[in-house]
C-alpha cells in the first residue's frame, strides 16, 4: 500500500499486527516506525514495550518468541526488526543462524497484542525467496521508495500543515527544484522556512530562494542550462561557487556527463513517443528528474548533446593524463559547452 495511505490508517487507529517496510527512503521508514509507536502506545508504555533488534545480532526464532510474549502491563507492544536482509539477495557477514521456518506460523496467526515490524532498508527484494512471498502475503507492506511528483507535492502540503505554514504550489515546486526529492532534506528545508516565516505565515518564493541551498544535482542542471543556453558568465560563476564549496572538479565533470546522457536518452525516447512514466521506468530515474529533462531537451539538438559527451571524455582524458589542471579543464569544458550549443548542424 502507498506510504501516505498507510499513515492515514495508522493515525485512524487501524494498525496491522505485522508490517513489512522496505526501500531506501530513510525518512519514510523512520516516520512509519514513530507513527506506529506513538499511535499504539502511550508515552508511559513505550519504555517497557518497544523492543528493537538487528537481524545480524539476533536469531529470528528469538525475535518470534519475543513477539509471542505478552506486553508488560500494557495492551500492546511493538517489536522492530532492523536490517531484515533475509528478504533480499544482500550478503551479510553475520554468523547467526536463523530458523526461518519459525516465521510462517507466526505470520498466519500473529499475537493480537504485538505489532511486529520487519524493516529492509534495501532498494530491491529477492522475490524468489519464500520469506519474501510470505511477508508480502501476510503483512502490511510499505515501500519506502521515492515519491512521484504529485505524491511529493502532497507530502510537502502535509508537512507544511503540521508545521503550521502555508506553502503555495509554485513555491512547493521551486523547493523541489532546489532541494531535490529526498524527504529528509525537504523536511529540513521546511523547518528552516517555518523558522523564517513563523507559525501561521506564508512561505514566499523569495524566502525559498534565500534560505534553501541548491543540491549538487540542481547546480549541475543550472550549469548545463546556462552554458548551453549561452549564459557562460553565469555558468562559470556557479562553477567557481561549487569549487569554493569544496565540490571536486572531477565529480562535477562526472555529474555533467551523467546529466547530458540523461538528456540524450530522454530526447531519443521522446522522439519514439514514450511517456515520461515509461521513460522513468526504463532509465530507472525519479519521475521528477525525467519531467525536468523532458522539458529541457526540446532546446538541445541530439548532435550537440552527443558532441558535448565526446568533449567531456576528452576533458577527462586530459585531466587523468596530466595534460591539464582539473579545475581549469572543467572550466574550459563548461565554456566549450556554450560554443557547441552555438554551432548549427546539418
Automatic annotation (TrEMBL):
GO molecular function: DNA-directed DNA polymerase activity
Annotated catalysed reactions: DNA(n) + a 2'-deoxyribonucleoside 5'-triphosphate = DNA(n+1) + diphosphate
EC number: 2.7.7.7
DNA polymerase III delta N-terminal domain span: 19-144
Pfam families: DNA_pol3_delta, DNA_pol3_delta_C
Entry superkingdom: Bacteria
UniProt domain DNA polymerase III delta subunit-like C-terminal: residue ranges: 217-337
NCBIfam families attached to this UniProt entry: holA
Name of protein: DNA polymerase III subunit delta
Amino acid at each position: 500500500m502507498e506510504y501516505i495511505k498507510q499513515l492515514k490508517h495508522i493515525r485512524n487507529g487501524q494498525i496491522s499486527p505485522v508490517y513489512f517496510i522496505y526501500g531506501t527512503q530513510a525518512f519514510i521508514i523512520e516516520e512509519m516506525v514513530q507513527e506506529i509507536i506513538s499511535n499504539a502506545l502511550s508515552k508511559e508504555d513505550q519504555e517497557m514495550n518497544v523492543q528493537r533488534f538487528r537481524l545480524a545480532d539476533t536469531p529470528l526464532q528469538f525475535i518470534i518468541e519475543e513477539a509471542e510474549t505478552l506486553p508488560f502491563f500494557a495492551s500492546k507492544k511493538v517489536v522492530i526488526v532492523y536490517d531484515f536482509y533475509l528478504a533480499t539477495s544482500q550478503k551479510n557477514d553475520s554468523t547467526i543462524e536463523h530458523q526461518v521456518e519459525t516465521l510462517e506460523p507466526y505470520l498466519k496467526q500473529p499475537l493480537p497484542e504485538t505489532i511486529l515490524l520487519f524493516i529492509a532498508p534495501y532498494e530491491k527484494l529477492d522475490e524468489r525467496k519464500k520469506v519474501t512471498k510470505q511477508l508480502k502475503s501476510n503483512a502490511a507492506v510499505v515501500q519506502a521508495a521515492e515519491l512521484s511528483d504529485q505524491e511529493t507535492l502532497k507530502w510537502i502540503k502535509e508537512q507544511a500543515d503540521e508545521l503550521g505554514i502555508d506553502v503555495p504550489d509554485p513555491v512547493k515546486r521551486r523547493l523541489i527544484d532546489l532541494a531535490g526529492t529526498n524527504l529528509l532534506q525537504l523536511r529540513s528545508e521546511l523547518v528552516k522556512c517555518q523558522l523564517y516565516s513563523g507559525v501561521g505565515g506564508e512561505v514566499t518564493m523569495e524566502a525559498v530562494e534565500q534560505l534553501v541551498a541548491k543540491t549538487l544535482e540542481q547546480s549541475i542542471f543550472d550549469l548545463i542550462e546556462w552554458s548551453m543556453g549561452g549564459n557562460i558568465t553565469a555558468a562559470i560563476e556557479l562553477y567557481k561557487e561549487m569549487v569554493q564549496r569544496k565540490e571536486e572538479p572531477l565529480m562535477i565533470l562526472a555529474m555533467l556527463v551523467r546529466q547530458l546522457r540523461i538528456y540524450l536518452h530522454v530526447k531519443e525516447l521522446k522522439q519514439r513517443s514514450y511517456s515520461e512514466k515509461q521513460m522513468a521506468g526504463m532509465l530507472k530515474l525519479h519521475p521528477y528528474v525525467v519531467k525536468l529533462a523532458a522539458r529541457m531537451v526540446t532546446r538541445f539538438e541530439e548532435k550537440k548533446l552527443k558532441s558535448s559527451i565526446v568533449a567531456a571524455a576528452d576533458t577527462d582524458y586530459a585531466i587523468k593524463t596530466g595534460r591539464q589542471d582539473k579545475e581549469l579543464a572543467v572550466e574550459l569544458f563548461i565554456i566549450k559547452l556554450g560554443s557547441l550549443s552555438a554551432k548549427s548542424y546539418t
